[in-house]
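#help-structures
NK: newbie question, is this the right format to request a structure? protein is Methyltransferase-like protein 9
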Amino acid sequence: MYEVDELALTDEVRRKFMPLSVDEDTHQFLSNCFEQSEWLVTQVWHSIAKAFLGLFMTQTSING
């Protein structure tokens, strides 16, 4: 969970600020992302695909 020093916010932002929490589905998604980011084969595949797609697509489109 994140924390915000609400005293550092302006009054207007402080009134609108709504703290959020991570639900179980989001926690599972993030856990899977961290696990997969350590997979060597996946990283190699992403690097190759990124290099190839970069020849005719923007980085933003590749990330999408």
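mod (FA): yep, format's fine, and the tokens are attached above. The two ends are 27 Å apart (CA to CA).
NK: thank you!
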